[in-house]
Protein: Transmembrane protein adipocyte-associated 1
Organism: Anisodus acutangulus
Amino acid sequence: MRSIESIVAELPPSSSATAVVGEGGGGWLYGWLVECHGLWHNVLMIVPSALFVLYLASQAKRSFSKVSNGRSHVVAALYAILWLVSILNLAWCSLQMWECAPGKQFVWSVISLFTTSGMLFLEVSLIAFLLQGNHASGREALTQTFLISALAVGLDMFLKGIYLFGFGVQLFDVSTNGSQWALWVVHKLLLTGVYGLIFFMCRSRWRERLPARPAFQNYISIMFCLNAAALLACGLAAHGDGFGLWLYDITVICYHAMYLPLLYVTFLADFLQEDDLHLENVYYSEMKDAGFFDVDWDSCIRK
């Protein structure tokens, strides 16, 4: 009886290639899910992003009604941008195999640039909104917030574009051990510094300048820890440390899989799902739990 190896060797090249791919686990589906980063990396990126888009779609009718009848231009704008960035992020997570495809490097760089810039725009917008204080609302706050965000993200895209298309540095291909890590170290250092500043403001006598909601403080704490871990990972990867590459990969998965749901839960869920009276009670309870009424209550007791 002839061996399987001898039969495969006599097949035409196309048939042999097809047989090898078939052994790998299912042709294009196998390549889409397993190649480049591996199965678990792709699943952890794609599944949460897809579920979040499906959740937004399931709540779209109710959310659109609340946004249309609401009085906050900031919430309406953030909701619209959230939809756009969520679709971009899902596409980016679903096309991870392009990072390892030689013919897709340009397209991968472009979609990565727009996806990361869209998510950064949301980050900067929320930071700018928080730093405007407790009474930030209306068109003036929206204009100031988006102006700051547009300037910051525009500068960020300009610098990344120079690296990508001017010097040919593959910023979004972590398999290349090159000068992209210097830019990522500076990028993560700036974000860590900003989140760290707000983190310590929330725990100092300047906390009254920020919205009095524990959910906001939790958001800042999570983003501060995530960016600090990413900064450490970039620093280690710049020196060729394998643990740095592994840690950076973990932070990328966490960011693209969980940031948009975190943003939604922290800043938009109450506005889009609760009635006005219940929303006011929620805010009052959170402010009371945070201790913002302790001073007034003690002064009333003394009187």
